[in-house]
Amino acid sequence: xxxxxxxxxxxxxxxxxxxxxxxxxxxxxxxxxxxxxxxxxxxxxxxxxxxxxxxxxxxxxxxxxxxxxxxxxxxxxxxxxxxxxxxxxxxxxxxxxxxxxxxxxxxxxxxxxxxxxxxxxxxxxxxxxxxxxxxxxxxxxxxxxxxxxxxxxxxxxxxxxxxxxxxxxxxxxxxxxxxxxxxxxxxxxxxxxxxxxx
Length: 198
Known about the structure:
By secondary structure, the chain is mainly alpha-helical. It is built from 7 helices and no strands. Helix 1 (3-27) packs antiparallel against helix 7 (171-197) and helix 3 (69-90) packs antiparallel against helix 5.
């Protein structure tokens, strides 16, 4: 397993949850500690679970698409990266879209799912295109998704509590950078495949 790639993917996947937590941290006034921990726990768990599900599904079809899997990875990562960039520049002020009350269970589940859809596709790409290197066996896979979930948990918690200090941070530029990194990772995977085949 390539730990550096897994950490990079984890950081990229954590951007949506981190930005949401940052926005929520700007306006929430009550029960801040418990609210931030529940939010971080849920988004972190979703970010770990979704690539696991994607990987399991991707392994089942790997033999069918093995010859052109690197093109699938490139297409998926370019679409995800482009989507992140487009959403970053399309968003209205994030403060207007967040409720100032602590989130209930159902709302937490929706936020967790909404911020982790990309992770499902990344899990498929991990199986098809060896993103993160060769994932050999369940222990390695569980370690990889745990790293991804932990990065999201930490990023979400830090973003929530730093919101008061960093309220002028240009989040759309951070999201744009994350989108470009995701596209770059897809290109890197394609070039690696071409170089290995040559």
